């Protein structure tokens, strides 16, 4: 059973829509696998963490909740945070303040990206529809003006017709 690297208490397995994570009910820290980080916090942050884990050489004071070996310290600048991660297990440990301090917008799931894409497409289509409607209204106005000119021109032509 995985144990918290901070307080050594057993971690609870928490199921959520995006998958599983491991939560410490004592210190509120959580362990997430890289695939879980990707689903919960977004592809960009997961890829960055994976790259930083591979490059890190600094050993942490904390042990991995799964294999009990020393984790590595991973420092990210954007968003600014320092995490512990286990390269062999592919696990990242977020203490409560770090996880809660993640800026809004960092947390983006694949579903939210699809939703944003749908909203963008809908906005584009609405804009195109409004433009077509505006063009149609302008064409109708032009047609009315032409009809008025024909009526006015036709009446004047019979009165001034030089052939009659």
Q: How would you summarize the topology of this molecule?
A:
Elements: E1 12-16, E2 19-23, E3 30-33, H1 34-41, H2 43-55, E4 59-63, E5 70-77, E6 80-86, E7 91-94, H3 96-100, H4 110-159
Antiparallel strand pairs: 1-2, 2-3, 3-7, 4-5, 5-6, 6-7
In words, what does this structure look like?
- By secondary structure, the protein is an alpha+beta fold.
- The protein has a domain at 12-108.
- The protein is built from 4 helices and 7 strands.
- It has helices spanning 34-41, 43-55, 96-100, 110-159, and strands at residues 12-16, 19-23, 30-33, 59-63, 70-77, 80-86, 91-94.
- Strands 1-2-3-7-6-5-4 form a 7-stranded antiparallel sheet.
- α1 runs antiparallel to α2 (43-55).
- The model is unreliable at 104-110 (pLDDT under 50).
What is the CA–CA distance across the termini?
Answer: 109 Å
The ordered H/E elements are: EEEHHEEEEHH
The stretches of 5 or more residues where confidence is low (pLDDT under 50) are 104-110
Order of strands in the sheet with the most strands?
1-2-3-7-6-5-4
Strand content: 15-25%
The DSSP helix count reads 4
Largest pleated sheet: 7 strands, antiparallel
Radius of gyration: 32 Å
Secondary-structure content class: alpha+beta
Oligomer: single chain
Percent helix range: 40-55%
DSSP E strands, number: 7
Approximate shape: rod-shaped
Mean pLDDT metric = 82
